[in-house]
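Hello,

Our lab assistant flagged a job as stuck in the queue for most of the afternoon. It eventually completed. Since we weren't sure the result was trustworthy after the delay, we are filing this so someone can double-check. Below is the sequence as submitted and the structure that was eventually returned. Let us know if re-running is recommended.
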Amino acid sequence: MQEIIVKENEELILPILWIGEETELAYDISLAEKGASIKFIGLLLGKEKQGLKLKITVHHQAENTKSNVIIKSALKDTSSVFFDGLITIEHGAKGTNAWLAAHLLLLSQKARGIAVPNLEILENDIKAGHATTVGRINDLELFYLMSRGISEEKAKQLIVEGFLQSILGEFPEELQKKVKENYETRLSTI
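-- returned structure --
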């Protein structure tokens, strides 16, 4: 487990790219002082039999702290992701702004994804929310693109690219090239 402490008025961006090397990742993040902020962005690309258990816990311990946790995943073959996210807003953490989102796209009938977001709110005067989606490529979107003369394979690639594009742009510039290379090689044949 990686423990991260964010101090007063510190803004941390923590990008992760999972390409099947690890089977478990865990992050315990403490926003320990006033004005601490974290942006956690994760791109998870699974294929073959790769599997990941990802646990992220964010503790808002002080006033005016902010967290934004966004996970996006594309899973092929029999790959799987289990995401467990928890945001705790402790007593005294007034003015907190917290968001937790996980969106898992299953690209085969045997790929599996589970997302469990949790909020534990022990303070008033805060803003917090979460969202999750786990699903397959939308048949109507696929049909629309194919009715415009695009092959099924290319249409699927365009849909996956569109799905992941918002998170690709969130990665710091120096990591974007590595992210795009891995994304293109791992998902080139959907």
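-- support follow-up --
The delay was a queue issue, not a problem with the job. The result is valid. The longest helix spans residues 152-168. The helical segments are 139-147, 152-168, 173-187.
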